[in-house]
Design brief:
The complex is a heterodimer of chains A (157) and B (370).
Chain A lengths: L4 H9 L18 H14 L4 H16 L6 E3 L3 E13 L7 E11 L4 E6 H10 L13 H7 L9
Helix pairs in contact in A: 3-4
Chain B lengths: L3 H28 L5 E6 L4 E6 L4 H7 L18 E6 L14 H5 L2 E3 L9 E4 L8 E12 L4 E10 L10 E6 L9 E6 L9 E7 L5 H8 L6 E8 L10 E7 L3 H14 L5 E7 L8 H10 L3 E7 L11 E2 L2 H8 L6 E7 L1 H13 L7 E5 L2
Parallel strand pairs in B: 1-5, 12-13, 12-16, 13-14, 14-15, 16-17
Antiparallel strand pairs in B: 1-2, 3-4, 3-5, 6-7, 6-11, 7-10, 8-9, 8-11
Helix pairs in contact in B: 7-8
Classes of the chains: A alpha+beta (157), B alpha/beta (370).
Chain lengths: 157, 370
């Protein structure tokens, strides 16, 4: 799919060493627009929306904030730890503000699975439908997010 | 009249030429630009260097033995390496914009990792940074404190000794490995006492996918060489007769342990209470060592608290979040000062409780992991 100049400029900012050392694109050779389109399709097939996934990520992160840096139970069967490391990151899409390097680690004790995401992930998913490129250490698979966080289909939210 | 298509083609050609020129300039700047030797003046000429131009200010200073704090290794993502540049800096880079506000601009504050030294430059940095050095070390021991926290002890080789006060942090240089093509720097508080001049002890908690912590947990072994630089930070025990409240969680234990070691070595008699928060017994560590300070320091008490003790823990100590324990422990805080280290959430919540009990903000000192 053809990509706009603006989208190409954003993709350039996602390359290694511009905002973060390894970039956001992983091993992707495709245009950003193709990555976004594919993940959009996957999210739609799951009956979800990017905003719905982001809302769920926020709800669990906020539930975990009460643990003051340690794991805390979040109903119905999650354990969540919200911790930070030094530093903050700007959004590669050029949105205002910088995001603290806050890690929310969510354990689904029923399924025995765990996932970690940052405030920047939440923003990029909710505002841009971007889950990072394949091969990126920090890519979040929409299906995995949906399963581990038990995101409900969009129409029931 | 020019047709719309001809206009668009014209704009397109102009844009393409501009883009091509920009690319050529960037490549030329990176490959063939020769800025020759430039003069770098620090703090009004207190120190002056003649350096090869063209490199970022952060690494240029490092080459001259001046280490500016940086947690991201010069990628412009931590915003820590701020310096004041009075002349020779050039325009703000787009990568600096998220970190430099209007007040910073008025004071000529810049990110040293994003400013290239291309011409004579005059900068100002805090005097204490002159005492920061790089140290070659080797790993003396690695010990599991919990399932996700390791204690790493480094033996200093060159220089063989470090002088630091309790509460400081160092930067740990992670060499290139499969997760990073270039060395990266990460900041960790020192947990050993100031008198341990030949060794530096760190407590490092695993960060999921973290470049440095993955290296420490999966690759680092006894005998490996490690480069560090430091010491940094303004988290230290103030001289006063106030009762001390220490609050920490996780690897926030490190600087508090260093302070307690220092107090014990100096024979301090100050009243001090250390609140350490964890979820369950498996998240607690160094309990015996902390209890041991109760014998060495007459006014000291260690209060570990579990927010979610498990039945098998058979826990009889304090329970609840550390803020709840604090709230129960004190009615008013009128002769105290507090030292906190841990996650921003823990620190913010604890400060709220301390202030509600009457402790003025200026008597609350903290080291946030953010």
């Amino acid at each position: 799919m053809k990509q706009t100049v603006q989208m190409q400029a954003i993709q350039n900012k996602m390359k290694p060493g511009v905002i973060v050392r390894d970039g956001f694109l992983g091993t992707e050779a495709r245009n950003l627009v193709d990555m976004l389109t594919e993940d959009e399709g996957e999210v739609t097939r799951l009956g979800l929306t990017h905003q719905g996934i982001a809302r769920r990520m926020i709800a669990l992160r906020d539930g975990g904030t009460a643990g003051l840096g340690e794991f805390i139970d979040v109903p119905p069967h999650f354990e969540v730890r919200v911790d930070s490391v030094r530093g903050r990151l700007p959004c590669p899409f050029g949105d205002p503000g910088i995001f603290p390097k806050t890690n929310a680690t969510v354990r689904n004790t029923l399924k025995g699975r765990e996932i970690t995401y940052t405030d920047l992930h939440i923003h990029m998913i909710g505002s841009h439908g971007f889950y990072e490129g394949r091969g990126s250490q920090f890519r979040l698979e929409p299906r995995e997010l949906a399963e581990v966080l038990e995101v409900r289909p969009a129409e029931t939210e | 009249m020019i047709s719309a298509s001809a206009f668009l083609i014209g704009v397109g050609v102009a844009t393409a030429i501009a883009a091509a020129l920009a690319v050529v300039m960037v490549i030329a700047d990176a490959t063939i630009a020769n800025y020759g030797e430039v003069k770098l003046s620090v703090n009004g000429g207190t120190k002056e260097f003649t350096v090869k131009g063209g490199q970022p200010l952060l690494s240029t200073l490092m080459g001259e033995g001046i280490f500016i704090p940086s947690a991201c290794g010069g990628r412009g993502s931590c915003g820590l390496c701020r310096v004041t540049i009075d002349s020779g800096a050039g325009e703000l880079a787009p990568t600096e914009l998220p970190w430099i506000n209007e007040a910073d601009r008025n004071k000529s504050v810049r990110l040293s990792c994003q400013v290239k030294v291309k011409r004579d430059m005059a900068i100002r940095i805090p005097e204490e940074l002159f005492s920061i050095r790089e140290y070659r070390t080797e790993v003396l021991s690695i010990r599991d404190l919990t399932y996700d926290i390791k204690e790493v002890t480094l033996r200093l080789k060159e220089p063989a000794e470090i002088s630091l006060s309790a509460g400081k942090y160092i930067q740990f240089v992670v060499p290139a490995y499969e997760r990073t093509p270039d060395p990266v720097y990460r900041a960790y508080s020192v947990s050993s006492g100031p008198s341990s001049k030949g060794t530096v002890e760190l407590e490092i908690r695993l960060v999921p996918n973290g470049i440095c912590t993955t290296y420490v947990f999966n690759y680092l072994k006894v005998g490996d060489p490690v480069t560090i630089n430091g010491p940094y930070g303004d988290f230290y025990l103030r001289e006063s007769d106030r009762d001390i409240i220490f609050i920490a969680g996780g690897s926030g234990m490190a600087p508090i342990k260093s302070m307690l070691l220092d107090m014990a070595e100096k024979g301090s008699t100050r009243t001090a209470t250390y609140f350490f928060g964890a979820r369950a017994v498996r998240d607690l560590f160094l309990v015996e060592e902390m209890k041991g300070f109760e014998k060495k320091l007459p006014g000291f008490k260690f209060v570990p608290a579990l927010s979610n003790p498990q039945p098998e823990d058979k826990w009889e100590g304090e329970t609840g979040l550390i803020t709840e324990v604090l709230d129960r422990h004190y009615q008013t805080l009128d002769h105290h000062e507090a030292y906190l280290c841990g996650s921003p959430g823990m620190i913010d919540a604890s400060i709220k409780v301390l202030k509600a009990k009457g402790l003025p903000e200026e008597l609350i000192f903290f080291d946030k992991f953010a």
